[in-house]
Amino acid sequence: MGGPFKETQVPANAGAGAKALAWVDDRFPLSKLWNDQWGKYYAPKNFNVWYLFGSLAMLVLVLQIVTGIFLTMHYKPDAALAFGSVEYIMREVPWGWLVRYMHSTGASMFFIVVYLHMARGLMYGSYRKPRELIWLFGFGIFLCLMAEAFFGYLLPWGQMSYWGAQVIVNLFGAIPVIGPDLSLWIRGDYVVSDATLNRFFAFHVIALPLVILGLVAAHLIALHEVGSNNPDGIEIKDNLDADGHPVDGIPSHPYYSTKDFFGVAVFLTIFSAVVFFAPEMGGYFLEYNNFLPADPMKTPPHIAPTWYFTPFYSVLRATTADFMYVLMAAIAAYVVFIWLKSRLAYRTKIAVAVIGLVLIIGMLPQVLDAKFWGVVLFGSSVVIIALLPWLDHSPARSIRYRPDWHKYVYILFGLCFVTLGYLGTQLPTPAYTIISQVATLLYFAFFLLMPWWSTMGRFKPVPTRLTFTPH
């Protein structure tokens, strides 16, 4: 049996709102949740503009869910009716064109915001101890977003939707033994068809949004448990005042609420400009081929995924038969480098050498073809991002206190990522293929060599208190 119920005493002259809140708080910890998660959550006082993108990501998530609900009211997940239902939304439903363009633009904006959010984490070491789990939850959100965007991309049932899904699903067929059956299971048919559309619709509308919401909640709970990082990479919990609050912290509300509202205003201005004046964004946000109904008998001359997948798609496309020999040489060089420069135990080095030998043998054209290794590199280029907390051995979290040449390493990595993204939207000419292969090698080198280069150079002394200039 529980103890006696104690009701919060409210002054007699309190307003109706205060009385209603007290009544709710007695039965549900509403005020406590608000104070713990935002109102009295102490954040570092030196946040800059890079720290807006987390709240903007939450805004776009809500925007996508709301616009998606309205779209499902008129959309029909049927191969014979899907394209026509989208045209009906655009032409006949009142304000349907606006809701559809908000949803399609929101998908691209979501990835822009998330990529910038991840870039901030990379610059300031937000994935370092004790925030490894925050990074992993965030990576899980990123993976689910990619799946959500892929499943949603098929739904308009346009030419690029149909053939893009056909190409991506066929990639799974390159996996030995289980590949053909796996592709068949994903499609639900031998080709992309009505069965594929129905299951993709179910994943896009119900399954993945629930997973994303759960991961977002876990991401925020983990963040508020260990506290936010900051541009200096210093733990503000190490310096507390008499009340137990961080000396270098300030309550999130109202100090960061006002800044978030300003960021939201700027974002919505840009978002509205795109929605009203350039929703296709030159074919990057909405491909021109997708305004044609899907035709299984007519293949578009150039099939490419939407821009936010193209950096990883370029890695897949760069993996040609000739490139396999370069990869074998790179793996051999990396194993030798680990033997010479690593302080790993002798048994671990033996294991690395064996794994390297197995990979080299597997890359021989007589064993596994380049298509399979393209899929492996495609997946590895995404998954390797999750390993950052264990690859970065730098004594300083933030880029502010690392050697200046580290900034150029980050800039080179960013240029490689953007180059791969651009080349993925273009036809694969011989010159573009070579450039994408070089960018692929540099992309993986950034991560695989990070345990060494992140510790090199002369580091600047990290202050014990935050560097902050009031403004």
Structural write-up:
Helix 3 packs antiparallel against helix 5. The protein is globular, with a radius of gyration of 25 Å. Helix content is 61%, strand content 1%. The termini are far apart. The chain is mostly helical and 471 residues long. The protein is built from 18 helices and two strands. The protein has a two-stranded antiparallel sheet.
Tell me the number of helical segments per DSSP (H or I, 4 or more residues long).
18
Strand order of the largest sheet: 1-2
- Detail the poorly predicted runs: none
Which secondary-structure class do the elements indicate?
mainly alpha
Query: How confident is the prediction overall: mean pLDDT?
Result: 91
Shape: globular
Estimate what percentage of residues fall within beta strands. Answer: under 5%
Strand count: 2
- Report how far the terminal alpha carbons are from each other: 55 Å
Helix content: 55-70%
What string, H for helix and E for strand, traces the elements in order? HHEHHHHHHHEHHHHHHHHH
Radius of gyration: 25 Å
Largest sheet: 2 strands, antiparallel
Transmembrane segments: 49-71, 98-118, 133-155, 167-188, 200-223, 261-279, 323-340, 347-364, 370-388, 408-425, 431-450
Membrane topology: Multi-pass membrane protein
Domain Cytochrome b/b6 N-terminal region profile: 20-232
Keywords: Electron transport, Heme, Iron, Membrane, Metal-binding, Respiratory chain, Transmembrane, Transmembrane helix, Transport
